[in-house]
Records
---
Amino acid sequence: MSQRSSAAPRATTGFGALALDDTLVASVAGLGYEEPTPVQRDTIPLLLEGRDLLGQAATGTGKTAAFALPMLHRLGHLAPEHRRHTTGLVLVPTRELAMQVAEAMHKYARGGGLTILPVYGGASMLQQIRSLERGVNIVIATPGRALDHLRRGTLKLDHLAMLVLDEADEMLDMGFADDLDAILEATPPERQTALFSATMPARIKAIAARHLRNPAHITIVLDKTAAGKMPRVRQVAYVVGRAHKPAALERVLETEDPDSALIFCRTRLEVDTLVELLNAHGHRAEGLHGGMEQRQRDRVMTRFREGAVDLLVATDVAARGLDIERLSHVINYDVPASADAYIHRIGRTGRAGRGGTAITLAEPREHRLLRAVASAAKQSIEVAPVPTVADLRARRLEITRAALRERLIAGNLDHTRVVVETLASEFDVVDIAAAAVQLAHSAAGGDGDDREIPAPAPSASERNHPVAPLRPSRGHVAGEKSKRPAGHYTRLVIGAGRQAGVRPGDIVGAITGELGIQSRSIGAIEINEAFSLVEVPESMADDVIDALRATKLRGLKVNVRRDRSAADRRDGPRTGNRADSPRC
Ligand code: AMP
C-alpha cells in the first residue's frame, strides 16, 4: 500500500499536468478552476493508473472532481461495445449528494458522450426505469434505490469497470452496510474501486479490506501545518447556506466596514460574479485571477494601492506573490481546501503589528473541513451567527452617531442652533435632537428593508454527527475533539465576556500561556455578554483559577470561580447543541 499525505506545500501544477483528456482539462478550465486541490493532485494520477484507492477527505476538499475526472477519462476510453452498459457507479449517502455529484459530473463530462443519471429514493421509479432502459454509462445512486433497481433487473452491473463509494462513513451511519455488501456482490471482482470517507473507523477499514485490492491510501486529514509566527488575527466563521452567501457577504462587509479587504474565491467564475455583484451594490471591487493578463493585474493592483479600489476579489493562484501592505480584512468566500491555503490567506491581514480580521463563510456541509483546517492550522476560529438585521441597524445607527459626534466637535452650529431654540419652547430638547438624528439617519440610507438571513438547516452529515455541531452559536472551532483527554471536567465562570471584548482565544491563550498545558486539554468555552464559561480538567481546575486570577484578560483583572450551577461531568466536556461553543 502506498501512503500519501497532503499536508506539505506542493509545487503548483495545473490540471494539464495530470494526464487527463484535453476535453476534461478544458471543462475544468471553463469552470474557472485554476489548479487541482491537494486531494485531486494525489488521487487523479492513481485512479488514472487503475489503482484501487482508500481516501480520507472531507467535503469541500474537491473530492468529487478527484474521482469524477478520472472516472470520466477511463470510462471514455473503454471500447465502443461498453458504451451500451453501465460502467461507472457512484454510491452516495443522500439524495442531495446524488444530485450534487451528478450535476458536477455533467459539467465535467460536457461533450464527452457519456450518459450520467442520478438515482435516489423519493423520486419517480418509473422515470428512473425509463432512463435506465435507454442506457446509462454512469449511475450516481443512494444504496437503497440502487439495490431496488438491481433486484428489479433495471440496473445491471455486470460490466461495471469503476465503483466509487463516496462518504462511506455516512452510508454506514445511515444503516446502508448490508445494501452496500449486496451491491458490491453484484459487481465484477476486477472492477476498480475507490472509497472516500471523512473518517476512518474500523468498520470502514473492514469494508476496504473486503472489497479493495491493494489500495493506495490518500490522507487529506490535514496534518499540523507549521503556522509559524502568526500575526494577531481575529478569526470568525459564519455558517450560511450556499444560496445566502452573497447576502451574507454583503452583511459582513457592511457590519465590518473594512478599510481594505482581500476576498478569496475558489474559481475564476466566482471572482467575476462577486466583483459584478459587489460593484452593483456600491462597493469598489476589482477581480484578480489567473485568466487575466499581467497588464490587467498590474492595473488592478495600482488602483488598489492608490485606494481607488477597496475590495480585491481573487483566487489563491492570483493572490500568490502579491505584496499588499494595508489589508484590514481577509474574507474566505469558501472554506479553503487546505490548511496551508488558510494560513497563507489569513497571514495577509494583521500586518505591521496591527490586528486584522479573517472571516470565513462556510456552508453547513463544510463543517468537517472547517474544523480540520482550524486544527491543522492550529488556529482558533470563532463560529458566529451571520449579523442579524438588528445588528445591521445598530451598526448603521452607530455610524450616524459617529458622524454627529464629529459634527459636534467641529462646532460652528449657530446657523442651525436657532432652529433648536425656536422648537425648544414647544418640545423637549432631547426629543428635538432625537428627531433630528432620525432625519439624518434616514437621509444616510436609514434602515432599509433588509431581511434576515436564515440559519442553515443541519446538513445530513451534521445530523449524523450531532456531537460535533457547527451551528452558528458563538462558539469556536480549534482542533480535533477526539484527541481531547477524557476525564472529569469542571466548569469555571470568568467575570468578563463579550462586553469586555473577551474572545475564546484570549481564554485559551491565558490558560495555556500561564500553565504551559496544551490547548486540547481545555473543553467547551462559552462567551456571554458579561461573563464567560470554560471547561477544564478537574485535576487542573485550582491551578487554572489561580493562573487566571493572577493574569489579565484583555487588560482586565478578572474574577474566576467554579460554576456551582453545573454538575461536573465525566467523559470530558459536554459537546452539544445550545450556545456552548463547539470547541472541537
Ligand atoms: P467537493 O469537495 O467535491 O464538494 O468540492 C467543493 C467545491 O470546490 C465545489 O464547489 C467545486 O466546484 C469546487 N472545486 C473543486 N475542485 C476545484 C478546483 N480545483 N479549483 C477550484 N474549485 C474547485
---
Amino acid sequence: MSNEAIIHLDVEKGEINPNIYGHFSEHLGRCIYEGIWVGEDSDIPNTKGIRNDVLEALRNLDIPVLRWPGGCFADEYHWKDGVGPRSERKRMVNTHWGGVVENNHFGTHEFMLLCELLQCEPYICGNVGSGTVQEMQEWVEYMTFDGESPMANWRKQNGREEPWSLTYFGVGNENWGCGGHMRPEYYADLYRRYQTYVRNYGENKIYKIAGGANVDDYRWTEVLMREAAHLMDGLSLHYYTIPGDFWKGKGSATDPSEDQWFITLKKALHIDELITKHSTIMDQYDPQKRVSLIIDEWGTWFDVEPGTNPGFLYQQNTIRDALVAGLHFHIFHNHNDRVQMANIAQMVNVLQAMILTDKDKMILTPTYHVFEMFKVHQGATRLSVDTVSSQAYEYNGESIPAVNVNASKNQDGTVNISLCHVHPHDESEVTLDLRGIEKVSDVAGRILTANESNAHNTFEKPDHVAPQNFEDVRLSGHKLTVKLPPMSVAMLTLR
Ligand code: AHR
C-alpha cells in the first residue's frame, strides 16, 4: 500500500498556539543546578549565574513559555526561602528527588532572569499540597504588585524595582498524587479557595491553571470541570510515554529491542485518545472551549542511566525520542481548538531533555533537533490534511500508521509540512497532493534520521544524530513525492 495525503493549503484550521512548544524545568536532579544554574563564581561561562552554552542553545528554540519550580517539587517549595541574599537562604532537603540538599540559590529572581534571557513567558506552579493560601497570595503579590505593599517592598529590597509580568500560574501540581493525594472533590474545593487569592494587580492578568488529571483519570476532569470550570482558564493533563511498568521497569532509554520501539511509539500515539476523551468531558461544561487543556508534563520516561542517582531521572535520548516528540506535536496541533499549551518534561538533564550536560560540556539531543525543526509551526495556521492511504507498521500482530503528516502556513504564506516515519526497517514513499494553491515554486527539506534505533548523541560524538538536508523530494505540478528512510522526522518548506 502507498502513503498518500491531500494537503489543503486553502483550508485553515486555526492557530497553533506557540505555547504548545513550551518547556518545564524542575528542581530535580541536574536540571536546575548544573544544567541551567552554575552560579556567578563558576568557571563555566555564565550570565549572572546562568550558563551561557545552555542559554545560547535554548535561545535557538524560540521557547515560548517555561514552567517552574515543579512538578512534585512545587508542592514542597516555599518561595520565601528562595529570595534575598543567596548566602542567607535556607537550605532544605529535596525529599522527592534524591534527598539532596537544596540551597535555594535558584529562586524567583533567578527564574525570572532566565525567562528574560530566553525571552519566554514564565509559568509558575504554586504550592497547594504543603503551602498556605497566604503564601500563594503573597508570592503573586511579590512578583506582580506595582506600588507600596509589604511584598512589593520586599521585592524592591531584594533588587527588583519593577514588578514582573506574570501570566501563567498553576494552582498546585498532581494533587491526586505527590501534591497531596487528594480526591478530586477535595482538590476542586481547595482550587476554588486558593485561586481566589491569586489576584490580578494593576495591568497584570493571571491565567489560572488548575491541577488536572493523570493519564485517563476522566473522573478528575469531570469533577474539576463541574465544580470549578468557571474559576479557571486552563486545566492540566499529565501523560508520560513509558514503554514498561512504572515501578517494575520502564525500559532502557537506549534499548534497541523492537518490542520496546513499537510499544513506545504506540503509547506516544495514545495521547490522541486521551486528549479526545478529556476534551469531550470538558465540552459538556464548556462548549465554547474557553478553558484550555494544558499538557504541562509529557514525554518519555525510561529507566535512569546505569550508575546514576535513581532520584535524578537522568536518561539518554535517541531517535525514538525524536519521533515521540514529533508525534506529540502533530497530535497537539490537531487538537488546537482545546490544547493551548504543552510543556515537555524536562528542559535539561531530566527525562526527555533537550540538552544533556557533563560539568562544563553540553550536547544537544535528538529531541532538541525536533523542537528546532518544528519551531516554524509555532503560531502558524494549521492546514487541513486528509490521509488517503497509509502503510501500517505491523509488529507482533499489532499495527500503527507508519507515516504521520501535519502542515501549517505562516503569515508570509510559507507552508511547512512535517512528517514522522516510525518504521524501523523499511523506507516509505509518500505522495502529497497539494490542493488550493496555484503553483509551488520551491521546496526545501530537512531530515533527522539514523541507522540504528538507539542512535543518540554522546559527549564524544555530539552530532551523531543531527538534521541534514533532505534531498529525496520530487515536485511535479501539484504532487510532492518524498522517500522517507526508516526512523525519520522530516520538515518540508514550500514557497
Ligand atoms: O517530571 C517528573 C515528575 O513527574 C514531576 O515532578 C511530577 O509532576 C510527575 O509525576
